[in-house]
Amino acid sequence: MLHIWNKGLGSCLVLALVATGAVACSGGDGDTQTNGDPVIIVIPDEDECESNADCTDSAAPVCDMVTKECRAGCIEDSDCAEEAGAPLCDTSVGMCVAACETDDDCASDPGGPICDTEAGRCSVECATNADCEGNASGPVCNVGAGECTAGCVTDDHCDDPATPVCDTEINQCIAAPGGELLGTGDQAATVTLVHTPSQPVETPDLAFQPDDGSLWLLRRRFEVEGECGQNTGIERCRALPGYTTVITSPGNPLVQDVQNLEDGNSWHFMRRPPTLAMGAPGFFATCGEAATGNFETDAAMFIGPTLWSTDLAVYAQDPGPGLNGSHLDMLHATPFCMGIAHERDNIYWTFNGHIGAIDKYDFKMDHGPGAADHSDGEIFRYAEGTLSRVPNVPSHMEFYDADKHLYVADTGNKRIIKLDTTSGTRGGPFSPVYEPLADYGHMDDATVTEVVLPGMLEQPSGLAIYNDTLYVSDHATSTIHAFDMNGNPLRSLEVDLPAGSIAGIEVGPQGKLWFVDMPTGKLYRVDPPAE
């Protein structure tokens, strides 16, 4: 007998009946159910089809997937040979259609929006990203639309240094991981003004004193044209000395204190300084962008780095009768020094702008405030002719203890290089030498490697290393860049200052980047986005 089986699911449709009386039905959830009697057999309608292969009648070769019936139509283009104006078979619907001539003919065609004029068919421009390689519209295939669009597939498609990495999940260029001092993700750091001097003063560098956290700004007076001689160029002579501004508790307006300190003979010992470096506890060093520390009419290029005390009871204080300034030591073999970096003890590296070399100094024991015994000092010269100076643009340096390399902003050559300080063989002596020394000479065949290649920076100047990241200021663009230690760009921060503003940069005790506006002397802090 015929009955409807209902088990709390509503009525079901009878699919087949067998002699045993078993009922098979399809419930609302699409499952086939039985009433528990012996297995049933579903008998299909003899007129139904599942594919074109089931339609053997040449007059009805197409299986209509909606009605499951064979009907007239086409399977291939040859079936449309006699159809005037419709020579192509659209196999998706099994019908003869006209050939397309332009993309407009394909605007609503399910085959795709692009007209393949050779085949006369509407099709998609791409099915995968590989189909868009070299396409003027972009390298990314929008599969839904079948069109090539802008975006990225590999890092090679990301030309902007600020977003050098391709996120292949969204096919967009993003900032690389790292460089967090300049921002994270799509959040850029903000720049905060911390200190403004009472009047503008050229300020090429800054450094934190690690013993007490005070911040030292290196100042120099604006340059005056002419030549400083014994009886000439008095205004230029007055503009040659440099000095320092020491800020305690920098960034804390409630307790921040500022004092300007100048050595009694800064005219010689701090002649037009472009850079300073904190050294072993209690010491720092500067060098001068000048041909000599004496009158400029003197042909001898008698100038080099100066060692100082960070003890404010010693530095910039009168050392007593018969002594010359508060300096602790000075050696004289690096004219037009553009950068200085501390390695260890009283060992410093300098950028010799006169001959494009890297000079290594070891002051050994200092001679005390204002004295003049330099005879224990050592000077060794590396990679002569490798570097290029840009006048009045500091070229900062950093010694990186992790790999024993000296990283240098080679400003004139628009690159960052590194010197393997463990490389090189002893060569012959250099000249001139103006004072007795314990040892000096060339170091030949030292290994110099380009880190950031020319073309990525215009005038690299400031340089700092923090958490295995290289931070570089571009003096020409007032932009700070972050690179990994192999020179790959991570991100950048454009600072809202005129070109020619940023020189020295420094990472402070709280892990934030600080910099000075060289033409005005203003001090800024870079604050990463809040987490």
Strand content: 35-45%
Tell me the number of strands: 41
Question: What is the C-level CATH assignment of the domain at 184-204 and 221-238 and 253-261 and 285-527?
Answer: Mainly Beta
> Globular, elongated, flat, extended or rod-shaped: what is the shape?
elongated
pLDDT < 50 stretches = 1-34, 37-44
CATH domain fold name of the domain at 184-204 and 221-238 and 253-261 and 285-527: Neuraminidase
How far is the first residue's CA from the last residue's CA? 74 Å
User: Taking all residues together, what is the mean pLDDT?
Assistant: 89
CATH architecture classification name of the domain at 184-204 and 221-238 and 253-261 and 285-527: 6 Propeller
Number of H/I helices? 2
How are the strands of the biggest sheet laid out side by side?
25-26-27-28-33-32
Helix content: under 10%
In short:
This protein is an all-beta fold.
Explain this structure:
It is a single chain. The chain is mostly beta strands and 531 residues long. Among the domains are: 43 residues, no CATH class; 291 residues, Neuraminidase (6 Propeller), CATH 2.120.10. The protein is 2% helix and 35% strand. The protein is built from two helices and 41 strands. The protein has a six-stranded mixed β-sheet, with no helix packed on it. It has a four-stranded antiparallel β-sheet with strand order 16-41-40-39, with no helix packed on it. A hairpin with a 6-residue loop joins strand 17 and strand 18. The protein starts with 12 loop residues before the first strand and ends with a strand. The relative contact order is 0.09.
